[in-house]
Amino acid sequence: MDFKRIQWIFLLIFVAIDVFLGLQWYQGIQFNTVDTVGSTSVLKEMQGDDISFKKPSNKVGEGFYIAGQYSQAFMSQAGIMLKGTSTTYDNDTGTLTAELSINKRFKLNLDNPQRTLDHFIREPENVFHGQDYVYSEELSRMTRHQIVYVQVVPSGKIYDNSGEVHFNIDSDGYVSSYTQTYVSSPKILREKTPTISEEKALTWLYQYNQIPNNTTILWTKLAYTKLLDVNDTTVYVPTWFFGLRTNNNEEIHVKRINAFTGTIIKDTPQKVNINK
Amino acid sequence: MHNRDSHFVKKFGVFSQYMLPTSLVLVIAISLAFTWLIWTNPAHFNKSMNENTTATGPTQLSARVITDIYAPTQIIYTDASQNQKLLFDQKINVVNEVIKDIQPWHFNKIKQIENVTTKKYGQILNQKNTLIMNYPDSISGEILNDTFNQRLSISSKVQFNRVIVPLNSKLDKIYLLNDNDFTVYEISVKGASTRILHTIEQVKTAIPVVEILYHKHVLLIYPEDIMLKQYSYLQNRQSQHLFLTNLFNNGSNGDVKTRKTVETTTYEEGNDRRIVFDNKTGIVDYQNFNGSKSNVNLNNSLHQGFNDLLAIGVPLDNMRYFETNGTENSFVYRTYVEGFPIFNQTRYGAVKLSYETPGTEHATFSQYSLQVPLPNNQPMIKLDASPTVLRQLVSAGISVNKVQDMQIGYEWQTDPSTDMVVNLRPVWYIEIDNKWQRLEQWLQKG
């Protein structure tokens, strides 16, 4: 009988040991996947703050550093090529403004503006190098009277006011004028490099306190933005864009995260002058 | 207790006589199984290390993961007539593409190939129709699993610095090679796809090279002169404050002693931690006499190294593991440009971590790092072919069998006109007596 009792005591002790070891082991496994758990818990926390978003992808992307220039000579050519427009060129901002003559204006279906504009922009007599631009639904939704086309560069699009065409719509729904900026001869500065994933970018943006409570994330996009100006060249970097709208406000805000380093991109790019 | 026991016995009778010993055996077996699982799970070692680093480290927001640091840096293609070419392309990242192509494969089983002589090693290395992925120095099998998304069970003994993928029609095996002791492992592979062949075809630039065994060292020889680009980068200077917050327990607000001279600024926290900043060169020397030492094998050391890099807070963009010393207690990391390492960012590389005496951590790194590449119009530079370089060394009185390694690297030079810009110039670097120096430095001495 005594032996039986010892067996019982042993049984109970070993059950306790098993529970303890089991917990230890489970925690070990948990630690192994700490990275994903980390992101997931941040995403949960965001939902707790009434931030709504589509499930972000955790796949890493790839991109380049790209250098480009404003070309004044380029824009002065534009004036000769275009027909039925009167153009002005602002040297400081590198912006060409083209006013369409009355008979060149056309009405636009604002639900699907790209159907008409895609044809218009491709004609060299309408927009200079227009075939380098594509329609951006996200940016076009930012303001009601503008349709935005963005410039395509190697392996991506430029979401920056230095490579865009903005079509202005008058009160009758006609396209009356446009402004154009152009990045000429974009060059790759460094080999293709991995970027951070959408999930990382989104959770970091939240951790930097850049997403207020009660916000809807309308869209996410990986595109190029201006990082710095060096002499007369501009360096562009792959960037995660997030279109945010606070729920009691109509306005859409765009937040940007550098997709190589994960830092916030400032509104005014850094300027560097090198004496060569 | 006694009453309850007898109650059970009454209830179940003979059955309980077996029940009790059986369940006892069962729980003992379970506890043994858990013990084994815990002991073999490396996460438990990492956990203790990580606690140590997170206590000092700030944010764990890193854009880079461990497999980015311990990644191959070169891809060499050996064609059907045994010509070897270093593959490079600015538009596609060849290393990443090849890794992505291999990730869906299934690594089945690993076995060591017995009786590998130096000659046989050379033959395996130079097999026809293969792809060689080179790591700057040996890494552990677990990193192989992480990099290629595999779950192969590999002994912690296994170390390798090359992966060889035979590109024959079967694609059913790969080899792991270790230059340090000439061991070769064979891994059988299932489900390989031929996408890897298309990746290789896409690559634009192929520099002719030869992997040769030379006095027990494997050297990558460039038989022809090479033209390489120069690069310019915007320089980033991290503040002293940042490193103090990252590396001291209480940040810079706690009980910290400061000593400042013309050359250096020293901060001490208690008797355990000390940071010395070189005011002129921006070189930082950090010592912690209260560190943890649990590096039982290379894999743990590599993990600890990565965690320490995160804790220090230097940018890990393009940072790669470069080499360890013979006793595996000192690790050097370097910044890479287009597949070539950068030298003299500090005397030792971008970051050097040492764990020489148990419980001490010693890190040397720089406040300066590369930030953003800048456009430049500097001409390309011509580098001599390897045989010419070796001949120059010999005529300067340096015997060739003293050469441990030779590599093309980029020399870090601050722009003379502005300290915001770093120029990177390609030059030959030679390793003799465990010391890396520019070719011309060795020639002057010789």
From TrEMBL, chain A:
Signal peptide: none annotated. GO terms for cellular component: membrane. The chain crosses the membrane at residues 7-26. It holds the Pfam family YycI. It comes from the Bacteria. Residues 39-260 form the Regulatory protein YycH-like domain. Keywords: Membrane, Transmembrane, Transmembrane helix. This is Regulatory protein YycH-like domain-containing protein. It comes from Periweissella fabalis.
UniProtKB/TrEMBL annotation, chain B:
Residues 24-444 form the Regulatory protein YycH domain. This is Regulatory protein YycH domain-containing protein. It comes from the Bacteria. The keyword Membrane applies. Keywords: Membrane, Transmembrane, Transmembrane helix. The keyword Ribonucleoprotein does not apply. The chain crosses the membrane at residues 12-39. It comes from Periweissella fabalis.
